[in-house]
Write a structure and sequence with these properties.
With 336 residues, the protein is of the alpha+beta class. Helices cover 27% and strands 30% of the residues. The protein is built from nine helices and 18 strands. A hairpin with a 2-residue loop joins strand 4 and strand 5. Helix 2 runs parallel beside helix 4 and helix 4 runs parallel beside helix 5. The structure holds adenosine-5'-diphosphate (ADP). Adenosine-5'-diphosphate binds next to helix 1.
């Protein structure tokens, strides 16, 4: 299979004053699924275009198994791209759509038939060979698009927001299906998304991209629980940052010095009574969301967002409360 190395890649679009990617490096291990996560306009799709050969970098290198692919024709690189829209051929059957790549490669009709059958079993839609693509639901269409992408045994699978146009349930099913298929085939995969939940559910590692740079790269659970930088923490849904001083003044046991600490909203407690590691505040908002209650509490100058799992007390707007920051959940910011 394939390891991918993206080395110091720079890319500037024509007539643009600044590069989209400045000095971009990323290594993806054989069989690994790495999610590129970030807001739109940060260069995620550009990176995929550079890998497939739709665009060329100004400088840097892209290697598969330690050999540069930049001089190889786009269609011979072995990287397949799957988009949000499936771009299946609407006038062809499912079989002809999936088998298209093999036909181009000159495979026999017997091989194509067998491979299409194998792929349909893999995507959980056996027996739909003769269906027209126009008769498929959105989710089925994306499964067929995945089969078409994988039928040629690509070295690298690139997924560009492949599930964005689907509704929640279909999307969750497909997240699982893609992950299972990807693992089963062991195909190295780069997956672009702006959806944190999706990136966490599907990837072995997540790279957070902001302004064309990776600001954090780690396993989802590490990034979620212990983002190291302010930018990464914000992106992971952390909004409460406390200086060591704030914590020390109120209670010596908490912490020290000039350091900055962060805490996830679901680890903050809102309660009626004061206790160690708590600060007094006033409820500015309390929203019942079924599985949890979401609070905004004004604590001095700060607005603290807390997310308390049910059953949780419901304090009305204006109520005087205490906000507890349990010491065991505070983590230090490395770069800010
Ligand atoms: P993302 O996938 O993270 O949303 P893109 O890679 O699509 O980001 O785009 C990154 C930046 O490059 C954006 O500011 C976008 O407007 C710009 N861009 C993308 N394609 C082109 C192009 N062909 N010409 C000029 N600018 C482009």
């Amino acid at each position: 299979m394939t390891t991918v190395n993206i080395i110091s890649v720079k890319k500037t679009y024509p007539n643009q004053p600044t590069p989209v990617l400045k000095d971009f490096s990323l290594s993806v291990m054989d069989g690994e699924m790495v999610a590129l996560l970030g807001p739109s306009g940060t260069g995620k799709s550009t990176l995929l275009k550079l890998i497939t050969g739709i665009e060329r970098p100004d400088s840097g290198d892209i290697q598969f198994d330690d050999s540069s692919i930049l001089k190889i024709d786009p269609n011979k690189r072995g990287a397949v791209l799957m988009f949000q829209k499936s771009y299946l051929f609407p006038f062809l059957s499912v079989e002809d759509n999936i088998g298209f790549g093999l036909k181009v490669q000159g495979a026999s009709s017997q091989t194509i038939r067998a491979e299409v059958k194998r792929m349909l079993n893999l995507i959980g839609l056996p027996g739909i060979e003769k269906r027209k693509v126009g008769q498929l639901s959105g989710g089925e269409g994306q499964r067929v698009a995945l089969a078409r992408a994988l039928v040629t045994n690509p070295k690298l699978l690139l997924l560009d927001e492949p599930l964005s146009s689907l509704d929640t349930e279909v999307r969750m099913n497909l997240q699982e299906a893609i992950r299972v298929i990807q693992r089963e085939l062991g195909v190295t995969t780069i997956f672009v998304t702006h959806d944190l939940g999706e990136a966490m559910a599907m990837s072995d590692r997540m790279a957070l991209l902001l302004n064309g740079e990776i600001v954090a790269l780690d396993k989802p659970e590490n990034l979620f629980h212990r983002p190291r930088s302010l930018a990464a923490a914000r992106f992971m849904g952390v909004s409460t940052f406390l200086s060591g001083d704030q914590l020390t003044v109120k209670n010596e046991a908490w912490s020290s010095s000039e350091k900055i600490f962060a805490i996830r909203p679901e680890h903050i407690r809102v309660q009626k009574d004061g206790c160690e590691q708590s600060m007094q505040g006033m409820v500015s908002d309390c929203v019942f969301r079924g599985e949890y209650v979401e609070y905004q509490v004004a604590v001095g100058e700060m607005s603290v967002r807390a997310r308390m799992p049910m059953p949780a007390p419901m304090f009305p707007h204006g109520e005087q409360v205490y906000v507890k920051f349990p010491k065991e959940y505070l983590f230090e910011m490395a770069g800010y």
